[in-house]
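User: I'll paste a sequence; please echo it back and then give the predicted structure.

Assistant: Echoing your sequence first, then the prediction.
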Amino acid sequence: KLQFLYLIDGGRILRSFPLITMAANGDQDMKTMNLYTDLDRITNELKELGHDVASGAPIPSADIHKVTMMSYSGVDGCKDVVKTMAATAETQILDLGAGIGGPARVTAELAACTVTALEYQQDLHDLSEQLSKACGLNPGTGGGAV
């Protein structure tokens, strides 16, 4: 699986930044690739930190990042991307294969920009939206949205 953040200006992709690279078998069903084998782990770890995702109550983004940043370079990698891109509130980023949205949320928060995170697998997408809402990002609204 390849995951990239893209710098887009006026609808043009100016530059792409790889976040993670993992071997993927194109013939393999996505659900058998074991990329996210236990989504309950995330909600359980947040419960251990005193947060209930299902309640809809706000959760500090730092706590969400602790359990959802699965890219090799973590939060520091997102900081490097934002710095290299010189991302601002006007920057629009497209994250393809966003999984549960860890890098997308961190990047949106750091740059206060719009990140469009696309994920093919519905269960990952749903959890990503829940987590984004819980840390104060507004999916689909622009301006810091994921």
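The CA atoms of residues 20 and 72 lie 6 Å apart. Helices lie at 40-48, 61-68, 74-85, 102-111, 122-134.
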